[in-house]
Amino acid sequence: MTLYQFLTKSSYFIKPLGSQSQKKIQITKTICRAVSTTQQTTGAQSSLLECETQENISNDELYLNEIYRSIPFSHAKLGKFYQDRPALENQYTQDAFLRSFLRRHLPSKHFKLVDEDLNRFGNRVTKDIYELSLRLEAEQPKLEQIDAWGKRTDKLILSTAWPQMKEIAAEEGMIACGYERIFDEWSRLYQISKFYLFEPSGGLFGCPLAMTNGAAKTLEVLKDKHSWVYDKAFSRMISRDPNTFWTSGQWMTEKQGGSDVARGTETIAVPQSDGSYKLYGYKWFSSSTDADISLTLARVVDKSGSVIEGTKGLSLFYLEVRDENSIMNNIQMLKLKNKLGTKQLPTAELLIDGARAFKISEDGRGVASMANMLTMTRIHTAMGAASSMRRMVNLARDYSTRRKAFGKILHQHPLHVNTLAFMEIETRAATILVLEIARLLGRQEVLGKGKELEDEAEVLRLIVPLAKLYVSKQAVSVLSEGLECFGGQGYIEDTDLPRMLRDTQVNAIWEGTTNILSLDVLRAITKSSGTVLKCYHEDVTRRIQAGRSNAELQEAVTAVQQSVNNVLGLASKLSPDLVEMAARDFAFSLARIYMGALLLEHACHTDATQMDIVTAKRWCEKDLAPLCTQGGHQNFTQKSMEQNLALVFDGYLHPSRL
Ligand SMILES: Cc1cc2nc3c(=O)[nH]c(=O)nc-3n(C[C@H](O)[C@H](O)[C@H](O)COP(=O)(O)OP(=O)(O)OC[C@H]3O[C@@H](n4cnc5c(N)ncnc54)[C@H](O)[C@@H]3O)c2cc1C
């Protein structure tokens, strides 16, 4: 007997009570109890028994039939209410901030073409590209090391969506557009804007593309010294033809160190008579394991069999991962990493066992030659983090027009909208930093030299690590807040929302952790004997200048000006070891101040909207100088350093390890 048959038959068990409404409640309760019991058991029998306990059978068939029709629970019906899902709509046309930045900077002839392409692409990332990303999450990479007959295969089994993503990346010219430079100095801005749309839908294919962009930049710079590598690999990395397009890996991290590659790199390079090298080592993290080529670090072995320790011993090598018959270049995949997120992306431990490679840096200049690659991958990391915030905010905003609570749509609750507004401000601040970096990079690449460009290069040297370290942290907080905006649904895997948070967490770790990047900021300042900081200060002051004549922005301008003076003043008083302890607060302060300056500048341009002004003001109301405000210099003393250690290890069972 089906449930429906059971329910219609069981009608005569139910007793009508006095009033109509009472009758209705009694009937509904009985039927519901019957249904829930039925669902928990294998048949209708137990429900029947429960209904039979009802006394005084009614014959009011007509009335009951009507009731049955309106009962929302049955095998055929899941209830009357379905929550509208948040809609994923054109990610470009609905991004008022991205569009206004592009309109402000691009000459109209370029803006027209860029706007057209991003409009089309903004739609595409919600369609086939997004669908592929869902497949990539569902069909995660697997490693078959040994086949059924005992032969070592090291076969990486990938979803067919992965090569499809690669095809799309080539056809869309994701890498190419940064190097063809058809939009002159704005080509990088166009490229990074396009990635900004792609990344949250890209199923982590953005990772190999980031490394490819970095490798292309590295080889472009080395063009004259290593022309054959450039001719062979560069043209493929910037190809729009899927048949020739190559992606690159970046193998630096070894078991002893990802942050500290100088001490952690054990891989050695043995010179061969034909000028090539054979590499031997163990790479602990290698993302995009299916890449066609890789750039990696190793120590050249001299004739006595010795290597030089430290950074001075590291050189940069180019290798092709497979030959033309897809046979691995003496590289074995030992394990695929079981990761918190980025599960779509294969990340492997590799044993390099005599891989043929070519040195593309001078001896001992490996880390320096890798700098361009790291700059590019760090820009990608910050961009990816900012774009994940934008995607989450877009979805949460849309959901706030569809979900009802306490008799109102969510957007009618001021508290909820306040939360969304906080997320929007964070997203705009992150986005403007990333876009400005792209704009400055494009200027460096296309416009050549000059005092203004030299100063911009110094600023760029500082703001790339700042963006990477700060935006990555912002993204985790905004995405976590974003999940909450969906209530319980935010925690449910098949909404695809939890994945977004998981995937975002990695940004703070790969390409350098927050602390390592903070130390990198200090290094940039020390190495330039303070020039970097001087240029930064001048740049901030120049950018906020226009805001001085705008009454609405006065307070914000003052906040930025005072913060930058206070932070630089305090930092200059700290001794080197205390500066190191303060590096993170120092970097956060520089990042927040710079974002404030950018937002103020944006709010003063001729087409600025009221929302641009609100954004700048709100951002500058924030604590822009945590270095000074969160305890300030009282926290950065020898005594507090000792207290920290004592506090952290209070109760620790192995004090002898300290
Ligand atoms: C999913 C994923 C994919 C990756 N893919 C790649 C890849 O393709 N290629 C590649 O080369 N690497 C890759 N990595 C490795 C990654 O770049 C490193 O793990 C990362 O740079 C951190 O290095 P580590 O693991 O050695 O951390 P550690 O250096 O061991 O850091 C541990 C902690 O100590 C802190 N710390 C370390 N030194 C200092 C210091 N001097 N002062 C203050 N704090 C310090 C760090 O901030 C961190 O909190 C990947 C990592 C992940 C998670």
TrEMBL record:
Keyword check for Protein biosynthesis: no
Keyword check for Transit peptide: no
Entry's transmembrane regions: none
CC cofactor: FAD
Residues covered by the Acyl-CoA oxidase/dehydrogenase middle domain: 250-353
GO MF: acyl-CoA dehydrogenase activity
Entry keyword set: FAD, Flavoprotein, Oxidoreductase
Residue span(s) of domain Acyl-CoA dehydrogenase/oxidase C-terminal: 364-525
Domain Adaptive response protein AidB N-terminal span(s) in chain numbering: 89-225
UniProt domain Acyl-CoA dehydrogenase 11-like C-terminal: residue ranges: 532-649
UniProt record similarity statement: Belongs to the acyl-CoA dehydrogenase family.
Name of the featured protein: Acyl-CoA dehydrogenase family member 11-like
